[in-house]
Each structure stands twice: as C-alpha cells, then as structure tokens.
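Let us work through a complete example step by step.
Step 1: write down the sequence.
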Amino acid sequence: MPFQLPTGIQTKSITSPPGTTVYYPQVTGLANRRVQERINEHILRATRELIHAQARYQTSRQPEMIGHYEIKTNERGLLSLTLTNYAISPHMAHGVTLMRSLTFHVNTGKQYALSDLFTPGSNYVQVISANVAAQIQKRNIPLLGPFQGIGPNQDYYLADKSVVIYFPPYTISPGYVGFPMFPISVYDLTDMAPDTSPISILAADIS
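Step 2: predict the structure and record it as tokens.
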C-alpha cells in the first residue's frame, strides 16, 4: 500500500447568532479540488445540522452554544472525525450535547456509513452487536433496558485501528453515562470487509 501523508486540516468557526462559537474542520491541499470541496461541504452541512438540531431541545432562540471537532483518523487516505455541539438555554437545568461523526476517503470523496465498511450480505450487525453486548457486561455499563443490538448504520468513527461504535445519551444508557463508546479492532472485522474498505486499508501491513 503506497504511503500517503495526512490530510491538511484548517479550523473555521461559526459565531452567529450571539453566544455561538462553533468550530469545525475543513480539509486543505487535496490534489482534486472537486473532492476537497465535496468533503468540506459535507462537513459544513453536518455542522449546521447540529446547530439546527439543538432547536428541538432549547427553550430560548439564542442559547449559549459551543461546538468542537476531533480528528480521529487521518492516515492512508482516510479521514474520520467527530463534531460535537453543546448548548444551554436560560433556566435549563443542564445543557444538551449532540454529536455527529463522518468518515471519508480523501482521494475519492466517498463518505462511509457503517454498512459501507462491510461486504454486502455479511453478518456484521450480529458480530458487532455481540461484541458490544460483551463490552457492556465486562465494563458494567448501566442500561435503560435490555440491549437490542446495533442498527445497520449505527453511529461510528475510526480511531486507533478500531471501529468505535457509539450511542447518544439516553439511547441505551442513562444520561450521566454520556456517549457510550465501544471500540472494536479492525483486525477482528477484516474477514467481513472487502479489500477497498477502510477496515482493510487500516489493517494492511505497510512495513
């Protein structure tokens, strides 16, 4: 596999309306400018969607809002990141945190949902669900009810050669747990992934 330098990242921000400071990334320096624009449009759209989604929870039209991002993987032509938005309105007992994750191949601009990582027809849902269930038990994670498994396009990101499955607060656990996250090594998933999958790309030996 050819060596590829990390993708350039530039931080931008949204500071309107007053009380809003939301930082988000934009990729830079890609050889294919159309791909670069497409990726950046996806990132900006997701950032704005989180801002608008807060309206369902806030009691004021101008809550205090802060947004951050984290680059989770930036190697081998893959870019995986999370966008986090926290907002609180006057008189609310506590704020609301929302999160989105995005994964791209920077050479093509392809964006990957969880199902795109696996060979069609594979039993990845069952395999990952069993892994998550085992982690829940081992880590004594409190649940709101019996764990029903993941969805075919469950939220995830790539980090440290792992597929990290996560759930929003109150989805499977009480709010104080935050976002329960479950890392699964890519090496445990390669038999269900095609050669072109980010799973296979991260697992490949380039020494």
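Step 3: interpret the result. The mean pLDDT is 95.
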